[in-house]
């Protein structure tokens, strides 16, 4: 399976591609950070992100795109920029028929470091080790993009099995007052 992970942001948008599968060690394919100038018009910044992420999608043909879920921050402008960048990426994936998965920051941190409150340095160190990279990806947005891809690579088989089991399970109806305790 090939996953394109995206750590969305207007100033720095991390994009990383990871390959792997059952019994196969994960392998980093490519990682980059799209930087846009803060003083450029919003539409131009979003276009720059779209062009670069679309090129990565076309070049690497991912099976899934994993995007960090926007979470509430104190700075509304930052949240808006992150959400807008996420939307551009999700649209590019949808146009190509590529499924999009959303993962929270704590979910990603827990997947790669074993702790949902890991800091950026811990995530970067674990990504460097897990993907056997010769050096740590820089800036942190690059490591975060690889972490998103790796998180999805590891979590998606279990999520798929759980969804299949839920769909296959017959609906169980328990009459009121008859639940065992």
UniProtKB/TrEMBL annotation:
Cofactor binding note from Swiss-Prot or TrEMBL: Binds 2 Mg(2+) ion per subunit.
Residues given in the record as Mg(2+) 2 binding sites: 68
EC number, as in UniProt: 3.1.21.10
One family name in Pfam for this protein: RuvC
Alphabetized Gene3D superfamilies for the sequence: Ribonuclease H-like superfamily/Ribonuclease H
GO annotation terms (biological process): DNA recombination; DNA repair
Classification lineage: Bacteria, Bacillati, Actinomycetota, Actinomycetes, Nakamurellales
One CC-aspect GO term: Holliday junction resolvase complex
Quaternary organization: Homodimer which binds Holliday junction (HJ) DNA. The HJ becomes 2-fold symmetrical on binding to RuvC with unstacked arms; it has a different conformation from HJ DNA in complex with RuvA. In the full resolvosome a probable DNA-RuvA(4)-RuvB(12)-RuvC(2) complex forms which resolves the HJ.
UniProt signal peptide: none
InterPro entries in the record: RNaseH-like_sf, RNaseH_sf, X-over_junc_endoDNase_Mg_BS, X-over_junc_endoDNase_RuvC
Subcellular compartments: Cytoplasm
Protein name: Crossover junction endodeoxyribonuclease RuvC
Record keywords: Cytoplasm, DNA damage, DNA recombination, DNA repair, DNA-binding, Endonuclease, Hydrolase, Magnesium, Metal-binding, Nuclease
Active-site residues, as the UniProt record annotates them: 7, 68, 141
CDD domains tied to this protein: RuvC
Annotated binding of Mg(2+) 1, by residue: 7, 141
Family: Belongs to the RuvC family.
Keyword Metal-binding: yes
The keyword Metal-binding is assigned to this record: yes
Function: The RuvA-RuvB-RuvC complex processes Holliday junction (HJ) DNA during genetic recombination and DNA repair. Endonuclease that resolves HJ intermediates. Cleaves cruciform DNA by making single-stranded nicks across the HJ at symmetrical positions within the homologous arms, yielding a 5'-phosphate and a 3'-hydroxyl group; requires a central core of homology in the junction. The consensus cleavage sequence is 5'-(A/T)TT(C/G)-3'. Cleavage occurs on the 3'-side of the TT dinucleotide at the point of strand exchange.
Entry GO MF terms: crossover junction DNA endonuclease activity; DNA binding; magnesium ion binding
Catalytic activity line of the entry: Endonucleolytic cleavage at a junction such as a reciprocal single-stranded crossover between two homologous DNA duplexes (Holliday junction)
């Amino acid at each position: 399976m090939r996953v394109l992970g995206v750590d969305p942001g207007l100033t720095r948008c991390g994009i990383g591609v990871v390959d792997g599968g059952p019994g196969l060690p994960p392998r980093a394919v490519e990682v980059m950070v799209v930087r846009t100038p803060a003083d450029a018009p919003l539409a131009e910044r979003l276009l720059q992100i779209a062009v670069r992420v679309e090129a990565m999608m076309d070049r690497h043909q991912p099976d899934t795109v994993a995007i960090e879920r926007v979470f509430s921050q104190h700075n509304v402008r930052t949240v808006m920029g992150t959400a807008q960048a996420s939307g551009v990426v999700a649209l590019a994936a949808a146009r190509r028929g590529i499924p999009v998965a959303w993962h929270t920051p704590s979910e990603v941190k827990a997947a790669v470091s074993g702790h949902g409150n890991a800091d950026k340095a811990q995530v970067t160190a674990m990504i460097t080790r897990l993907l056997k990279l010769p050096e740590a990806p820089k800036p942190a947005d690059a490591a975060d993009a690889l972490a998103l891809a790796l998180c999805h690579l590891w979590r998606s088989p279990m999520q798929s099995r759980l969804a299949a089991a839920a769909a296959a399970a017959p609906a169980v109806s328990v009459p009121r007052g008859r639940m065992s305790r």
